[in-house]
Amino acid sequence: MIPIITAFERSPDRGQGLARDMRVRWALEEVGQPYDVRLLSFKAMKEPAHLALHPFGQIPTYEDGDLALFESGAIVFHIAERHAGLLPDDANARARAIAWMFAALNTVEPPIFDRALVRILERDEPWYEQRLRVLEDSIRKRLGDLSNRLGDADWLDGAFSAGDLLMVTVLLRLKGSSLLEDYPNLAAYVARGEARPAYKRAFDAQLAVFTAASTG
Ligand SMILES: N[C@@H](CCC(=O)N[C@@H](CSCc1ccc([N+](=O)[O-])cc1)C(=O)NCC(=O)O)C(=O)O
């Protein structure tokens, strides 16, 4: 029995790895756990069968035997708990790595995700420019603090952990923008994550889904 995750049948990001199944795929590849994928249309995500798995009608979900999980951070944590390779064995180091998981999702991601939504949904609103400026100031504050903490280290706290995995996926949404490039050590940190063989396997797998959906 191998775990099954859900993902977009045709990701709006055109296979660039920004959808949150990417985090789960990457974590599974890091620990060497094979998995299956159930691809869902937007319509199917809102139907009872999927709502039974995901109360908000979203992807990803993770099923393994009689366990059904939603929330990409919780799924990555579950994988990290069950396999070596994503969280340290030392209790204090493990607790710090988990703190970085929360920091990625709860401190750094919100302004970055809100900026992405504003740029898609509110571009024509009268408040657009000001809203964007406020969000970008907030992002720069977070990235400045993160850059100062990372310094010239490879990862946030010793060995690569699930905290780095989540932080890299959060920062990847800024790839190519001056918001990230203005912090060279953060741009290098993201590139380090992308260079990991497990990341590449995960990225190629989700890109193959989009490519197949586009040529089908
Ligand atoms: N907090 C949840 C959030 C899950 C979530 O946002 N899922 C999105 C896809 S990943 C978020 C996402 C969407 C699109 C892009 N993109 O670049 O096009 C990137 C990321 C979804 O199912 N959206 C459909 C819906 O809500 O009806 C988690 O981390 O699992």
Automatic annotation (TrEMBL):
What's the domain of life for this entry?
A: Bacteria
Keyword entries, A-Z: Transferase
One Pfam family assigned to this protein is GST_N
GO molecular-function term, one example from the UniProt record: transferase activity
Keyword hit for Membrane:
no
Keyword field contains Transferase: yes
List the SUPFAM superfamilies hit by this protein, alphabetically. Answer: GST C-terminal domain-like, Thioredoxin-like
Q: Which InterPro entries match?
A: Glutathione-S-Trfase_C-like, Glutathione-S-Trfase_C_sf, Glutathione_S-Trfase, Glutathione_S-Trfase_N, Thioredoxin-like_sf
The name this protein carries in UniProt is Glutathione S-transferase
Species annotation: Pseudorhodoplanes sinuspersici
